[in-house]
Amino acid sequence: MADRFSQKIYRVVSEIREELEKTDELVSEIGRHKSLRGKDTFYLRAVASILHDFYCGVERIFVRIAEELNGGIPEGANWHIQLLKDMELEIEKVRPPVISQSVSKQLREYLEFRHRFRNIYGFELEWEKMKGLKDTLSSVAKDFKNDVVRFLRFMEELSKL
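The structure corresponding to this sequence follows.
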């Protein structure tokens, strides 16, 4: 029978794996609509929503890790940025980096887009500002997932202690 600490780690690992599956679905969803053009406002809104959802899923993973291993999520007006930065840090005697610096840099663009998306009207979306994010979503999501899966192996080892 696993102790309470191990049970908690197993639960967090399961929650993170579920979020990774959902981000995979978002990448798949956006990939199914390659033939549509960026001039259609409904298409722009759909792409923007998927890009928004992707970073929300990423951040949910980061929040769970921060709550369980970092002592909580950062505070203050820029907590979203700090949370992302925290995930690329190794916290001595606590955990390795969750993501690489290069993945963090790529994710920062999605964080910035999410902020814009939440603070403008849908008809103000600009295809030129979204196209690059849409086109790189698959590779960024893959790199992110690889980093997180590596981190999950650390968590699973931690639960065996």
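Residues 1 and 66 are 26 Å apart (CA to CA).
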